[in-house]
Design goal:
Length: 261
Amino acid sequence: MQASIARTFCLIALGASSFSFLAEAQQPAPQYRPPARDGGTREVLESIVIPPIPHAPFSATLDTEWVKFAGDGATITLVNERHIARDARGRIYEERWILVPKNGNFKSTMNWIQIGDPAQRTLYNCSPQRHICDLLVYDPASDLSAAAPTRKLAPSGQDKNVSWEDLGERNIAGIDAVGRRRTATIEAGTIGNDQPVTTMSETWHSDELGINLLSLRSDPMFGKQTFTITEITPSDPDAQLFEVPAGYKVNDQRKNPPISH
């Protein structure tokens, strides 16, 4: 079980689906970008999963806040706001915006538009800066499990290192959601840690739409990540969203690796 928890911990840190976004600037000034230097990391932040299910359309605004903890007790907070949508056919539209310091002088800018079509199994990954879309193969299978309804926990069968808690129901942005919290403890020495490490994830899931309306993830290494749906319209969005933007060149990369990044 400890090996399983360790793998889960690493996936939380590094995992990213077809719709994951990079927390780094790729824009002309003003921009938020650390100076070039030896070492460091390229950070990938996983957002909420939007399964490509039909007959559950919506358009929404999704706020992201990432609080990172410094060793001296200080915190660094990065934020962005972006638009997401799904139509009645299950097609998905997502914008990607640069994470910028909260209450800072940097303005967030859009760096990607992504359009996924489960029927055609296509994903367009479009750069507004280059006016180029990479056409990729989209496999929706791994995302479909996110649409599963939240069920009551069984009274037994919980592992000593992992606990689950039902949080009841609440209304978020006018949509009913069911909450659940998962707390896991990684024992000392499992991943090179000299002390036990505790991680927590909390989700508020809409069974109606098959998505999380609020998702929180916290651990001492990567800080606290909060994804919140602040506005949502449960109806079919504008069909134009799911078309390649006018004037964009399409590079079909379904047989070759992307080159336009």
